[in-house]
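Internal ticket - ligand job 284, zinc ion:
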Amino acid sequence: MSKTHYSLILTVVLLLILSACHSLWTAQIPVSTVSQRETVMTLPTTEIPLPATDFSFIFPSKPELNQIEPPRKNITEELTARDKSYIGVVDPLLMADENSMIIDLSLIQEEAYAFPLPGAKVISPYAGRRKHHSGVDLKTCANDTIVSAFDGIVRMAKPYYAYGNVVVVRHYNGLETVYSHNSKNLVKPGDRVKAGQPIALTGRTGRATTEHLHFEVRVNGQHFNPNLVFNLTERKLNNQCLVFTKKGNNIAVEPIELKFPYRWSSDSYSYKAATVKSKATSHL
Ligand SMILES: [Zn+2]
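stdout (structure tokens):
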């Protein structure tokens, strides 16, 4: 083949390529233009009304159902000198704007709870024969490890009269727990502790004739029966709600048994007639 033939073939090929490129370019432009035009043309000129969905079955408006809350409460974390010095103190934030508060124990996850003295048995119940026992006594040997029942902030850790060495933990769930007669406290006020974290060693400091853990549960400074929170035989949390209601200077504690699915109906509460009123005395 001559040079002329080669040049001719090359020119034809180049022309074909250029033609193909041009047709591709021209093919894209109209498509894009058309789609833009269509988009502009199909934009709504008026607002589309949202479907009228009734969410009231999920977010009930009745006051009693507003009590359904997550376990975390509004608690005071900045501790005062009084907080660090006394066992029965009121938290100014807790129940500040409400006459009652509910703590749903069933919402507390398993890892967010620990029995304060693993394996220990109750040797003296709340109230008890003396009627004024402000907590439960758990049998122990010397220097067993006491752990925090829930997550929280250590409010007080010091020797305190008949309590001996005592630790008080303010929990995010609204409760406070008290651990008394310790041989040694392992934490200090302001420490943040997790459920199950060691906070003290058992002992017989203060008014105690044998080694035991005097354990209290309190709300806003007032102790109440730990049996409402814990199954002390099985060392588990009770699967129930507790309603705390201000009654003068006292707080009444009332357990509510929940019938599934209690979150969806205002009529499915069943109340136990087991109101427990306790005075803020501190006999050990
Ligand atoms: Zn006791």
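Auto-summary: The pocket of zinc ion is lined by residues 124, 133, 135, 137, 214, 284 (CB under 6 Å). The two ends are 117 Å apart (CA to CA).
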